[in-house]
Design a protein that fits this description.
Layout (H helix, E strand, L loop, with lengths): L12 E2 L12 H4 L7 H18 L10 E2 L2 H13 L1
Antiparallel strand pairs: 1-2
Length: 83
């Protein structure tokens, strides 16, 4: 189990690139969070920090988003398990 807390804020809305505008993780980074190594989680958190800064000047209401669908979630989990 990971020692790095998930940055999730329970606002799961994906932009066009499949980045959650709540936690700034790609859907592939969200899937199986608890099964990732600390090194993998640290790498994800570095990307989260970069994305958060990139999104800082963007009005989130102007970003087209959609909730994560069950099909997207299942596909991401399967892909993560096969990686």
């Amino acid at each position: 189990m990971s020692r790095i807390d998930s940055p999730c804020i329970a606002c799961c809305k994906l932009d066009q690139q499949k980045i959650c505008i709540g936690c700034y993780r790609h859907i592939s980074e969200i899937a199986n969070w608890n099964r990732k190594t600390d090194a993998e989680l640290n790498a994800i958190m570095r990307q989260v920090a970069i994305r958060k800064e990139q999104y800082a000047n963007i009005n989130h209401h102007s970003i087209e988003t959609s909730p994560i669908t069950q099909a997207e979630w299942q596909a991401a989990k399967i892909k993560a398990r096969l990686s």
